[in-house]
Amino acid sequence: xxxxxxxxxxxxxxxxxxxxxxxxxxxxxxxxxxxxxxxxxxxxxxxxxxxxxxxxxxxxxxxxxxxxxxxxxxxxxxxxxxxxxxxxxxxxxxxxxxxxxxxxxxxxxxxxxxxxxxxxxxxxxxxxxxxxxxxxxxxxxxxxxxxxxxxxxxxxxxxxxxxxxxxxxxxxxxxxxxxxxxxxxxxxxxxxxxxxxxxxxxxxxxxxxxxxxxxxxxxxxxxxxxxxxxxxxxxxxxxxxxxxxxxxxxxxxxxxxxxxxxxxxxxxxxxxxxxxxxxxxxxxxxxxxxxxxxxxxxxxxxxxxxxxxxxxxxxxxxxxxxxxxxxxxxxxxxxxxxxxxxxxxxxxxxxxxxxxxxxxxxxxxxxxxxxxxxxxxxxxxxxxxxxxxxxxxxxxxxxxxxxxxxxxxxxxxxxxxxxxxxxxxxxxxxxxxxxxxxxxxxxxxxxxxxxxxxxxxxxxxxxxxxxxxxxxxxxxxxxxxxxxxxxxxxxxxxxxxxxxxxxxxxx
Length: 507
What we know:
- By secondary structure, the protein is α/β, with parallel strands linked by helices.
- It contains 16 helices and 28 strands.
- Strands 2-1-11-10-12-13-14-15-16 form a 9-stranded mixed beta sheet, with helices on both faces. Strands 7-6-5-3-4-8 form a 6-stranded parallel beta sheet.
- The relative contact order is 0.08.
């Protein structure tokens, strides 16, 4: 398995690499030939190590081609969220300094970019060249050198920034090997496993786990978007061994009728990994009850992984996101940079030993998020007496009501246990007396109707399970929620929408 995909493609070209939604199989050898074609084309455009390629593509074979091609030419690849507006895309392309922009035709048609080279996939776009018309040379390029992916943060506070790591100058495969080795704590191993992608690949986690699986020799089954029953169907059909999801995906799978869930054979599944948001304890327990102790969790971000917890550990420490990895230093600090006592909430700071990063073009942000060699993405957490870490929320989402902290994720997790709730979002809204009050925005579940009666039921449900200061003062209903394509709730959009809503009684 030396050099991950690159070595496997040479040693076992007939091994299945990709399976698309229509069942079309691409082998390692075929993918390698296409990667070489793209590599020769990028060099023909004049790109040299350190240059940047931006890609706004749907989940597709092209995504893997671009990661692997730039990964053997010493280039940076910048994946771009396909749901961004043209102006947001233009900012990332300009900020990254991309010399080449590659996009699916339906996305490219909306863009007005000043980039030296633009290539469209799956259709013509005026002013863009066709990705499919690239040179047909499939031979291995010479003078290969390792490239990197530069993901842009989601930009929850201001403009997104690229998480940039140095180029190694080494031959391709060193990082690939490290990525594959990094799957060992999750129980993923080099074999003929099958990894299911059901979230957008431009996001750090689906990218990282799918590419790591590919470097392990797994076959990648990819979907364009998450569909609960389609996921179960794919697990049975392709004998999927591992996948990565977010907690809202658990909720949607668990909300399928029992007869639908029981229709599919999930026995091939060895590892189901989740992260991205705090997961309600009841929801995760239901998943483990359903599929067995195969649900792994970690805490991490584009900047790096902090902790991992096995299903066995989690069952004895419900709600934890695990212990820090042995190689990583994690500290919980207060606003003055001092460590907080065990059991108290603090901002999570951690390091990325051996693979440091900076925020591209933003030394100020790089410095502002660091204390003593550690960095933070703004998550709040606490340690228990055994050193297990518990994620509370993002500092930017914290609600301060009457001088007391309320963590929205905790209230949301409780609301999601009510059978009439399909989704829940909790935000703080201005309150003349308390500073902020707690507002719950609810998406009713199947068969439930938004009404004053349902609102009263939910308030009673909160009264039965939450301390008084955590309980919503008001319930609002919404047919759906603003989320990223990876399932992350965009609370800031709800805060803007409901900024003028407060408890009229001021209670």
